[in-house]
Design goal:
This protein is α/β, with parallel strands linked by helices. The chain has one domain: 3-Layer(aba) Sandwich (Rossmann fold). The chain has a seven-stranded parallel β-sheet with strand order 3-2-1-4-5-6-7, with helices on both faces. β2, α2 and β3 form a beta-alpha-beta unit. The longest helix has 29 residues. The protein is globular and about 50 Å long. The mean pLDDT is about 95. It comes from Vreelandella halophila. One of its GO terms (molecular function) is oxidoreductase activity, acting on the CH-OH group of donors, NAD or NADP as acceptor.
Amino acid sequence: MSDIMGKTVIITGASSGLGEATARMLADKGARLMLAARREDRLKTLTDSINAAGGEASYQVADVTDRNAMQALADQTRETYGRIDVLIANAGLMQLAPLDKLKVDEWDAMIDINIKGVLYGLAAVLPTMREQQSGHIINLSSVAGHTVFPGAAVYSATKYAVKALSEGIRQESNGEIRATNISPGAVETELTDHITDPGAQEAANELYSVAIGSDAIARAITYAIEQPGDVDVNELIIRPTQQQL
């Protein structure tokens, strides 16, 4: 039996890209899913598709920047399934531009989604995981959380923060909560769609010309979850073979 079978998994940013690919893969392994994102139409379509294929999924519309919404998501998950085994903090925003372009509103948005969104998810699920004396937090960082490049200083700062939070969870786990930090390189998602700076968009398009499919990251997440309970996969960096950065 898979170590994923019967586990209750919350996935944020589940309406497309990595979140959707991971949801489908974990459903095939027997996980019980609570899918969260802002776009209800896509959530409903994905949930219906998983259930029609014999999986088990529910959804709740949630904005990770709203602490009350994240608490409601955790409460609904516990009400539906009775427990919370895994949180996959996948929701993220990448808006690249040189610092001197002063895109302060974009800085704020990335901080709110990429850092505070992860923290609000943690705050919502940690009490349940402590009560259960078990749990698994999987945070989606980035290769930008390991190296800084022109135009990505603020984005990198948020992803370094995610990496720090993942390590903090590990050190404070008391042997109860597993922590996995996953850092994708160029992957086929909607991440580059939100770049407003033309120069940064051009650079991103060049980098993402070698992008790999979202399934590559879904497999990494699946690998981390399906390890025995005494094995904690802490760090995975997944790049396209051709990516230099």
